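lol forgot to send this yesterday, sorry. struct tokens for the thing we talked abt
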């Protein structure tokens, strides 16, 4: 019984890289937005402007995704035994606090973390960008925090 408790309390470390499945989903959503604009009853000039705006947003986002996928030292999310969050990146260790807008489903976890300056950061964890065991342990820890003992 003590073995299970110690495994539950071990720190959870997740090397954060964007999920390839989520990237494909975001691209499909942008292309769907362009298709929806094309099917509206507006003028051709308005359709072209909106489609160009959506394409520009997709291009900008794809450049960010590409650089994140090539990052040799991606950020690491760490949750320790005292339910303290840390973001380790570029040789820095930032203390984070868990926000209220988190979602933990079997196939998706959305973490809302705040740094000490109260800036919001969101991390999307899917089965293809984090180890299965770490995601399982994280879902349990989000549901049953150790520090407070409350469900």
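and heres what i got for the seq, position by position
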């Amino acid at each position: 019984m003590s073995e299970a408790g110690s495994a539950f309390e071990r720190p959870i470390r997740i090397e954060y890289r964007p999920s390839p499945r989520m990237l494909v989903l975001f691209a499909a959503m942008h292309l769907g937005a362009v298709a929806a604009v094309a099917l509206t009853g507006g003028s051709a000039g308005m359709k072209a402007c909106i489609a160009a705006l959506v394409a520009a947003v997709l291009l900008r986002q794809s450049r960010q995704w590409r650089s994140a996928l090539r990052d040799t030292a991606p950020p690491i999310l760490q949750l320790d035994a005292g339910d303290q969050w840390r973001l380790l990146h570029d040789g820095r260790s930032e203390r984070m606090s868990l926000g209220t807008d988190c979602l933990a489903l079997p196939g998706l976890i959305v973490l809302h973390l705040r740094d000490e300056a109260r800036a919001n950061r969101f991390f999307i964890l899917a089965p293809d960008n984090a180890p299965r065991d770490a995601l399982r342990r994280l879902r349990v820890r989000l549901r049953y925090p150790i520090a407070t003992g409350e469900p």
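DSSP finds four helices and seven strands in the chain. anyway ping me if u want another try
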